[in-house]
């Protein structure tokens, strides 16, 4: 609790060649203001005592504020329709010759051929 008292200077300040000190003054207010919540009550009491006038005219609108932060990104939309087929590309360059492949299976025997000339006579001479 805080108590407020008026300052009282020492008597020796007033005892000089000018004369005697005057009579004691009227005691001041001894109202105690408690700073743990009573101060608000004291201000409210002052407001209720004073007479208020009518409210004033509204003020002019303020200037435009700064731009705010960007919001969160939106949701992905639906998948669109399939696009048209593109043009056929140009034919590429011929590649390198590959390695030799595996041998295939053996062939089927063919038909027997016609009999040839007998040259037996030529061999006897």
Describe the structure.
The chain is rod-shaped. It has 125 residues and is largely without helices or strands. The protein has helices at 38-49, 120-124. The model has no long low-confidence stretch (mean pLDDT 77). Residues 76-85, 111-125 have a biased composition (Basic and acidic residues). Residues 50-125 are annotated as: Disordered. Residues 59-68, 101-110 have a biased composition (Gly residues).
Q: Give the helix/strand class.
A: little secondary structure
Gyration radius from CA atoms, angstroms: 61 Å
Strand portion, in percent?
under 5%
Mean pLDDT: 77
Give the total of beta strands.
Answer: 0
Tell me the distance between the termini: 161 Å
Secondary-structure element order, as H and E?
HH
Percentage of residues in helical conformation: 10-25%
Q: Report the major sheet.
A: none
Number of helices: 2
As residue ranges, the low-confidence spans are none
Overall 3D form: rod-shaped
Pfam families: Collagen
In short:
The protein is 14% helix and 0% strand.
Tags for this entry?
little secondary structure, rod-shaped, Collagen, 125 residues, 2 helices, Collagen_Structural_Proteins
Lay out the secondary structure.
Layout (H helix, E strand, L loop, with lengths): L37 H12 L70 H5 L1
């Amino acid at each position: 609790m805080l108590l407020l008292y008026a300052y009282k200077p020492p008597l020796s300040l007033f005892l000089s060649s000018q004369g005697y000190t005057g009579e004691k003054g009227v005691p001041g207010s001894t109202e105690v203001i408690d700073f743990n919540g009573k101060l608000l009550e004291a201000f409210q009491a002052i407001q209720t005592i004073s007479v208020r006038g009518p409210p004033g005219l509204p003020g002019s609108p303020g200037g435009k504020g700064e731009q705010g932060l960007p919001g969160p990104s939106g949701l992905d939309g639906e998948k669109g329709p399939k696009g048209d087929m593109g043009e056929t590309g140009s034919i590429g360059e011929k590649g390198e010759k590959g390695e030799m492949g595996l041998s295939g299976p053996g062939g089927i025997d063919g038909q027997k051929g016609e009999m040839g000339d007998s040259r037996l006579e030529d061999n006897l001479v």
